[in-house]
């Protein structure tokens, strides 16, 4: 990386924090509060609101993290509504009340 130093504002001994983003992705992202992990496996899953407002469990393949948003490489499609509260009590087929 080359950084121009016009006006010599950067001096020897100075430091900074940088974040380099290498590439981009079109994969959907999900709030990390909606993720659950199967014990002793490292396999992540979430519940989405399916037909007739019933919970559906989805196994996920995860990618990068940015803040509190986790990239989902497999398991979700754009537009899926992920349950982010009370999902620890859900099973597939449980009725879900959607609140905004």
Give the helix/strand layout.
Blueprint: E1 29-31, E2 36-37, E3 44-49, E4 55-66, E5 69-74
Antiparallel strand pairs: 1-5, 2-3, 3-4, 4-5
What are its keywords?
100 residues, mainly beta, conserved putative lor/sdh protein from methanococcus maripaludis s2 fold, 0% helix, elongated
What would your notes on this structure say?
The protein has a five-stranded antiparallel sheet with strand order 1-5-4-3-2, with no helix packed on it. A hairpin with a 2-residue loop joins strand 4 (55-66) and strand 5. By secondary structure, the protein is mainly β. It has a single domain, classed as conserved putative lor/sdh protein from methanococcus maripaludis s2 fold. The protein has no helices and five strands.
Largest sheet: 5 strands, antiparallel
Portion in helices: under 10%
What's the count of strands? 5
What is the number of helices? 0
- Strand residues, percent: 25-35%
CATH architecture: Beta Barrel
Number of domains: 1
Structural class: mainly beta
Show unreliable segments.
Answer: none
Rg (CA only): 20 Å
**String of helices and strands:** EEEEE
Briefly, what CATH class? Mainly Beta
Distance between the termini: 45 Å
The average pLDDT score comes to 89
- CATH topology name: conserved putative lor/sdh protein from methanococcus maripaludis s2 fold
Shape: elongated
